[in-house]
Structure formats: structure tokens, C-alpha cells
Amino acid sequence: MIIVDGRKSEKKISDFANLEEILASVRDDDSMQGRVITDVIVNNENFSEIYPHQAEDMESASLESVEVRSEPAADMAVKVAAEMPKVAKMMAGGATNVARLLRESKQSEALELFQDLLDVTRDFMGMLSHLRDRFLGGADEDFARRTEKFSDLLSEMSEVMENEDWILLSDLLEFEFVPACEEWRTVGEKIRAQLEAAKG
After folding, report:
1. Of the chain's two ends, which shows fewer C-beta atoms within 10 Å, N or C?
2. Does residue 147 sit in the same domain as residue 187?
3. Domain match, 15 and 86 both
4. Judging by DSSP bridges, how do beta strands 2-4 and 66-72 pair with one another?
5. pLDDT for 9-46, tens place per residue?
6. Cα(61)–Cα(53) distance, rounded to whole angstroms?
């Protein structure tokens, strides 16, 4: 039995070779236009892939029930945007820790944390850009200017790290990156409000 958003589907599990085919068919259905799959429940247990294409390895003969839950993409976007200010705050906290570790001459610990910080920052910027592009008609001038300025700061920090100038790197983190995170926290809140308004 296949259930989509609480309704029993006319599609049968036996019509498909595996779970991946079932999910692809559900995703391609007209009723899923503008919606995002949030949960997949297989044989009454939550399912999420541990490795890529795991769903392909789950043959339909082993499936008794597949339930798919979704929500409008615009609702999901608001929820994601609501998390952005928290991420910006976390980035500021991470930067403060890296700066402290550098000043305490704990370079290896600091650089490991710094790499994590850069990864989170890249994901953060990518998500904000995606939300703006997909739901708010792309970047406005202010957003583009802030992004360019922040990108320049990240490039400068990477250069300083390569030169192993730990004092300058800790200064940049503390006096430029942390205040920039506060600005991005505000931008995140603004985007959430715009998405809420656009949703109607």
C-alpha cells in the first residue's frame, strides 16, 4: 500500500521494482507540484538513506507499506529561513572560539574548528542565496553587496591562514567575522519575514 499525504494512492507497490522507483513516481506526480517530500515511512518505520541510492537496493517484495509526507515548498522555505539566524549566531560563537584557541597557541585545534566554520559558512551562504533566488526573485543590491564583502573577508582569512599569521587571523575573526555574522543574522530574519509575506 502506498499512502501520500494521508491518502491511499492508486499506485501499487508491486508495480515498481524498488523503493527508489516508487519515490520517483510519487515525486513526478502532478499533485506534488510545488511541494517538498519531508518524510518517508517504510513498513511503519521512518526511512532516510544511510548511503546514496539505498532506496534502489530496497526491492518492492520487501515492502508492505510506503507512506510519503510532504508540505508546500513555500512553507518549508519559511522553516529553513527561521533556522538561519540561529546558524549565524552559531557561526559567531565558532569564530570566537577559533580566535581564542589561536591566541592560546593551540593551532591544530583551532584550524580543525576553523575548517568546520568555513564549511558551515559556505552552506549558510548557499542556502540564503537559494532561498532568495527560488522564492524571492533573486538577490537585491544590498544582499549582493553584503555577499561580495563577506566573500572578500573569507578570501582574506584563507590567505592569512596560508601565511600562518595567527594573530591577524584571530583579529579578523573577532573584529570582522563576528560582527558580519550579526549582520547576516539580521538578513536571515528579514528573508524569513519576506518569505512569510510572499506565502500570503
Report:
1. C
2. yes
3. no
4. parallel
5. 999 999 999 999 999 999 999 989 989 999 999 999 99
6. 17
